[in-house]
Specification:
single chain; alpha/beta; six-stranded parallel sheet; 11 helices; globular; binds adenosine monophosphate
């Protein structure tokens, strides 16, 4: 595994494999690796000839300077874990390499970024994400880039970005990796006190309560949402939002007629956590092709 700091060096390294038609995979990360990150790297290792993991804590996507300062960083351990998985390159540029003086361009995706995380963290958050991901895709020019379902809105926004700007890359979204008790893995979990760590399991229970109701036939999103809210209230958690949204548009659904995504965000102690659960409800009685028409 080789650590690379500059775009020039990265391009020089990738020139020969690219010319030889090798499949290049990119896993963009902000480091402090956990099993969620590692699952993306393993998937890239299986699918691709050359695996590049980018490690860059992107200041542009933090809406709070304190949050940026407190973001966990452990580059030595990250390098060891990437080596164990067989990653070829960790691309870990300094901030000046990504945003040299005079940097003046923003890539912005409209619509999808207005709701949920966009509404709560402000426009600058997703603008920061889409700008840095566009840059990383241009720097690495991978055949495939891997993202986690954990950040479902981010994945939807990036699919749209790549489609709208004709960026020649396949986007693969990999399942959320969870702790044994259901808590979605996140670099931020290490900030939770033991009590808050226990309370945080309510996030997954809330999403499961909504999913179980829909799978049992509930078609009113308000009822499913109330069940999720009740689960959070039992753990004394007041969410930023809990919604059942269309998996494509991220717009809250008025009735559940197909695949939806239960999404939520909440502060547990001082730590803001997000999670989601894709729900594929069984077809309603009479709509399975056997029934009356
Ligand atoms: P981050 O370092 O938090 O920016 O995450 C880097 C990538 O890992 C993003 O595509 C995330 O969606 C993904 N990721 C983070 N947590 C998980 C998880 N628990 N399961 C699967 N993917 C994850």
């Amino acid at each position: 595994m080789k650590t690379i700091r500059t775009v020039a060096e990265l391009r020089a390294e990738l020139l020969a494999p690219r010319r030889a038609g090798r499949r290049i995979g990119l896993v963009p990360t902000m480091g402090a690796f956990h099993e969620g990150h590692l699952s993306l790297m393993r998937r890239a290792r299986r699918d691709c000839d050359v695996v590049v993991v980018s490690l860059f804590v992107n200041p542009a996507q933090f809406n709070d300077a304190g949050d940026l300062d407190a973001y966990p960083r452990d580059p030595e351990r990250d390098a060891e874990l990437a080596t164990e998985i067989g990653v070829d390159y960790v691309f870990a540029p300094l901030v000046d390499e990504v945003y040299p003086s005079g940097f003046a361009t923003t890539v912005s995706v409209a619509g999808l970024t207005d709701t949920l995380e966009g509404a709560h963290r402000g426009r600058a958050h997703f603008d920061g994400v889409t700008t840095v991901v566009t840059k990383l895709l241009n720097m690495v020019a991978p055949d495939v880039a891997y993202f986690g379902q954990k950040d479902a809105q981010q994945a939807a926004v990036i699919r749209r970005l790549v489609r709208d700007l004709d960026i020649p890359v396949a986007i693969e979204v990999c399942p959320t990796v969870r702790e044994a008790d259901g808590l979605a893995m996140s670099s931020r979990n290490m900030h939770l006190s033991p009590e808050d760590r226990a309370r945080a399991t309510a996030l997954h229970r809330a999403l499961r309560a909504a999913a179980d109701a829909v799978n049992a036939g509930e078609r009113d999103p308000c009822t499913a949402r109330e069940l999720a809210l009740a689960e959070l209230a039992r753990a004394d958690i007041e969410p930023d939002y809990v919604e059942l949204v269309s998996a494509d548009t991220l717009v809250p659904v008025r009735r559940i007629t197909g695949d939806v995504l239960a999404v939520l965000a909440a502060r547990v102690g001082g730590t803001r956590l997000i999670d989601n659960q894709p729900i594929q409800p069984p077809p309603e009685a009479g709509s399975n092709g056997n029934g009356r028409r």
